[in-house]
Write a structure and sequence with these properties.
By secondary structure, the chain is of the alpha+beta class. The chain has a single domain, classed as 3-Layer(aba) Sandwich (Trna Endonuclease, Chain: A, domain 1). A 5-stranded mixed beta sheet has the order 1-2-3-4-5, sandwiched between helices. It starts with a helix and ends in a 6-residue tail after the last strand. 24% of the residues are buried. The model has no long low-confidence stretch (mean pLDDT 92).
Amino acid sequence: MHMSRAKGNIAEDKAVTILESLGFTIKSRNFYSRFGELDIIAQKDGVTHFIEVKSSINYEPLENITPTKIRRLLKTIDYYILKNSITSAWQLDAFVFRGEEYEIIENITLF
C-alpha cells in the first residue's frame, strides 16, 4: 500500500469514528467512479453527506481541494446519486485534520 494511501486510511478511520460520535450514519467508504473517489458517504438528519478527508501537518490540507477536484467530486456524487437512487438533500463536506486538530467544513461547494 502506498504510504500516503495508508495515512489517508488512518485519517478516514479517525474521521469515521468522530462522525459516528456526532450522530452520522456511515453509508459507504471509498466509492470510486471514473471521475474520482468519494472518501466517506454518511447520512444525518435526512441529508446525505459526501465527505472529502484531507490531513497534513506540514501544509494547509484545504489547499488540496481545488476547483478541479471539486468538479470531479461533484461528477462522482452525481454518479453515486444516480446509481443509488438517492432522493434526499445532499452536500459535499470536507473533514480536515491538521495534526491532531480537526475541522468539519460543510458545503464546500459554496466557497
